Amino acid sequence: MVDVTMGHGGHSFLFGQRLGPAGTLVGLDVDSHSLERARQRLAGLGCRVVLIRSNFSHLAERLGEFGIKEVHFVLADLGLCSAQLVDRERGLSFRADMPLDMRIDASLETTAADIVNSLDEKSLADLIYRFGQDRASRRIARYIVRRRQREPIATTGQLAQVVAAALTSPGKKHRPRKHPATRTFQALRIAVNHELENLETLLSAAPGLLAPGGYLAVISFHSLEDGTVKRDFKQNERDGLYRLVTKKPITAGREEIAANHRARSAKLRIAQKN
User: Fold this and answer.
1) What confidence tier does 260 reach under pLDDT thresholds 50, 70, 90?
2) d(C-alpha 2, C-alpha 135), whole Å
3) 3.30.1050.10, 3.40.50.150, 3.10.290.10, 3.30.70.20: which CATH number matches 2-83+195-273?
4) Which residue, among 272, 131, 265, has the nearest Cα to 199 in the 3D structure?
């Protein structure tokens, strides 16, 4: 079994308990701190545990290094770890003023601040529209460019203020359900971490890695991810490679959402290799 988004090992611990001594659990993550916490959590499992610091886009290569040619189950949870959201070094949240970084993998060179302060207005607007699906992308980009002419935008708080100013209409008293900067932050995070490209690479590699009867399960948290998974699964079904276990995505119920508010946007799709 391969958990390509190991995090702190919550999912892997549950699956690892079912594997037994003959099973192998492989976990990937780009965050060394998460892998260390997962290592401690999984220490008591009876199965073999292999933890690898790597992006899941390199899954086939990493498995090959350990002599693993096929797997029976691949799980990808595309959501962010709660600890990462509050980590001041990562700069992923506008709820606190942090350096505008957004790199999940510290080895990546380009930060969100680099994009915000260097991209021309049209390219910035296109990026926010493509990855954030914000119809006000041109207005947001215009406000960002205007602000950075005075001084570079260096923190999440500064960027959130700029976006809020671009989207807030004078005289409106009601508060929106989402922070105005939510879509812009999503767009930058996706761009910085190459999230959609990495997902597409994983999906392309999966049919060649799964054993017959093996499963691929993906938990997505926004429509760009879910749409990518949906299209891939359906195409592989048409090609005779997959059987769709979930015709429609599995979503959280009221009780789960009440216990974990972030689960409200989660969608689980599962495919089985023929």
Assistant:
1) confident
2) 38
3) 3.40.50.150
4) 131
